[in-house]
Batch of 2 targets.
Target 1
Amino acid sequence: MTLIDGKATARTIKQEIAARVAEITARGGKRPHLAAVLVGHDGGSETYVKNKVLACKECGFESTLIRYEDDVTEDELLACVARLNADDSVDGFIVQLPLPAHISEQRVIEAIDHRKDVDGFHPVNVGRMAIGLPCYISATPLGILQLLRRHGVETSGKHCVVLGRSNIVGKPMASLMMQKQYGDATVTVLHSHSRDLKEECRRADILIAAIGRPGFVTADMVKPGATVIDVGTTRVADPSRPRGYRLSGDVDFEAVKDVAGAITPVPGGVGPMTICMLMLNTLAAGERKYYP
Ligand code: GUN
């Protein structure tokens, strides 16, 4: 069994990005600049954004953090998005989700100039991804593609099962795995109303679990030798940890690791890759790679 080490892969990719930034600046070019907008004080979001700012430093990027309290109005936030769209010093930016209930996330996402949408959430980027045009691809599916590629997992002609159909993981993942230029695989998408779920999973050469249910994938759902990618990061109470919780994946790792040919751990698998892919998208934004 191969342990797919997302932490080490992310470290390597960040070093590659930093080397590219050093080349750009040596030629008199400017450092990529990422801005992040954080609303409120949600613990998870604070940690994500802090880590995004840290990753910018590691990659040699400029970063700007813009904070609002929970009571910011939608109009104020939309005005901030408009300012960032117009700010030529900012190559790309993200608005950290979730947003407070009184703000429409969709309206905010659609207000972002798709040429600066390094999260790849804008419908223009989602649509371009679906038809194979150059665009920003959202971080989690992009990170999974990189993990598979960099660990020599053959995808072409293989059977890939995606568990989950969310807009940010399941749907784009299935779309990418199906496309010739990315996964070139045969793809099945399973969800809460799918029948014969165990049998369908057992047919997978590559099983990507993104349903947010801790330990859902058990050993009897995995074909011997299959590659198992665990996207789950559910916080489960654990009084023995200093924080009072631990992260639990969608896969019963201890049991599945003896059946799988390769598997990602949680934490240390897909998670570290996502911030790293945001850095890759920001580098692309700085270089005007997709929207010259
Ligand atoms: N919240 C959780 N993941 C993400 C992400 O990738 N981007 C943004 N903007 N918010 C998130």
Target 2
Amino acid sequence: MEELATLEDLPQEYRDNLEKLNLVPLWPSLRDVLPPETPQPKTKPILWPYDTLRPLLMQAGDLTPIEKAERRVLVLANPGHGLENMRASSVMYLGMQLLLPGEWAPSHRHTPNAVRMIVEGNNAYTTVNGQKCPMERGDLILTPTGMWHEHSHEGTEPVVWLDVLDLPLVYFMEASYVQPGVHQNIQGTSADTAYGPGIVPTPVFTRQNPHNPLLRFAWKDARKALENMAVNQPDAESIQVTYINPETGTDCQNIIGFSSLMLRPNETLTLPLRSSAMVFHVIEGQAQVQTTGNNFDMTQSDTSCVPCFAPVTLVNKNGDKPTFIFIADESPLQKKLGLYSERPNK
Ligand code: 1HN
């Protein structure tokens, strides 16, 4: 492709005249906004080992009372985007949140969608629109856009979870805001609205706003599904299950997609190059995430991120035990916009 003229190639007087009228020449920036063949992501491959961040998160528990934090979170910020922008990727926000025994994180609702992947601790729960969603390690709890949510803790040990939000996108769209709420009365548990496996209500009229009946995915169910799949579909390209909205059969949230993957003992899985950035979080076991310039050795509760079109190979170096990885990616958004693509990883 032809190299294009730069800003400096233009006379200063001409540039000043443009600027005064809020005008900008396209050609000096054209190759930046439209790079040939592949996007040039700011997102860098990055690993956040849990054992390095956990002590600092516990320290935050001593330093900042929950009343002064509302949500006590250390944000997993990708330096490629600038730490202050609090982005793991262009679309995804990640944070590790700490709730101490007896604490309560007050009710609110906001436009960004959130999920929690529970990392450690017992006997905490999130209340989502009046439904009690108990938190156990590996569980996935949804708080879709506009739903009231608050966190409570009746246990004796700290509870930590990984928050995944589409905040960077929603903020960029100037659509991000929060509304404070009042303490919710618990009207039931997440299981009450979950119906049964493969069973959903039949509406007489098509729902105008498809709602999300399933707000909590228990890890024991997802793990069992993966184990069954490994036994019954041993030739599947990957042993992986997606968290869906059972009423629509599509991704459980509109923007970010969530799945869990099992690497069998000694398994190596090479993914196609994908147009979406990906987040990996180890629920159980050990995995090596191999990508350009980095081999991330990940153990339980570690989190990493890779940019779009990065080559990714996942390796379970353990010969005895499976590894289970939680994955978040931007493919639901990209598919809706017609922007999603894959290429072979040669
Ligand atoms: C939020 O509401 C929670 O409810 C966690 O636990 C993290 C990050 C940014 C904006 C809102 C929560 C958040 C958040």
